[in-house]
Structure prediction request, 308 residues.
Amino acid sequence: MDIENKKLHIEVTSRCTLKCAACPRTTWKEITKIPFPKQDLNIDDFVKFMDCEGGRKVELLQLCGDYGDCIYYPDLIEFIKTFRNKKFRLHTNGSHGSPKFWNDLCKVLTEDDEIVLAIDGLEDTNHLYRKNSNWKSIMQAVDILSKSSVKLAWQTIIFKFNENQLEQIQELAESKNIRWFSLKTHRYEDTNLIPTKESNIQTHYLFKPEYTNQETFEIEPKCYRIKTVGSDGIFYPCDWIRNPRTLYSSQLWKDRYWLDQLHIKNTNFDNANKIIKDWSEHVRSCGLKGNAEVLCKMKCRKEVSCHD
Ligand SMILES: C[S@@+](CC[C@H](N)C(=O)[O-])C[C@H]1O[C@@H](n2cnc3c(N)ncnc32)[C@H](O)[C@@H]1O
Ligand code: SF4
Ligand code: SF4
Prediction:
């Protein structure tokens, strides 16, 4: 089996209690002036979608997403129980969960599962990007999770407010026996968040004006790598394309041919992978004709080889 098909990225819900500046849910609201619709993945549809040879072979379900946070999915515990033959990796901001919620979650997770906590600062700074986060509730979650068997990781995105605080954040994470790592980004939305040191910025993905021209680009589609089931039930070629700044102007969205076929109600994991393969060939040929998506030029032009 294709090694890339062993993992599937899923957005189980579009719900979240936070308002991080560069999150697609926040930019969506900035652009449309209305909140992003509340959507929860339908478990029965997803069970049918995965009921095929490739679906059964998927080993890891990564509950991350683009518009929401899995801890606010009302069916989270049931979802995990339904797929207990697979491993889970959950990504969460860790805020506002009750002790009962975290204890119940620990009961269905094992040492083969992992929770990645997105904590970008300390008590005095985390909320500067993670708006509406609640430090006390995050630390309460950390303490409950640390006593369970589930693996934990603490992810810190580098911003201006924390670039000189990274060692202290790492110390705090490690004092709680949590593996710590930092991430550079190119998405800030707010210029006050941009680090002062260029080495702390992910420059290779930055937009360049020539991407909007009809210039030809050799594209090496990474559509095989982070295929994503959205909370809208659509199987997308990557999660990058789900950003409102790119999705609604993309051919994938405008030409319903692709998305209608890719709804999990209309296909299964095996067939959806074939459709994504056709889509990636389409992207490759668009690159050679000069009409590829701006996003595909940013993320998958030939010289971009990094895997983040
Ligand atoms: C939309 S979030 C969903 C998961 C969860 N709510 C969270 O924030 O971790 C998807 C991923 O994007 C990350 N993320 C959020 N803001 C980001 C930014 N400005 N640049 C890069 N990654 C970001 C999150 O930490 C998470 O790993
Ligand atoms: S916690 Fe995650 S889903 Fe929620 S607003 Fe922040 S980045 Fe978006
Ligand atoms: S950016 Fe375009 S080519 Fe790259 S993975 Fe996403 S859809 Fe595929």
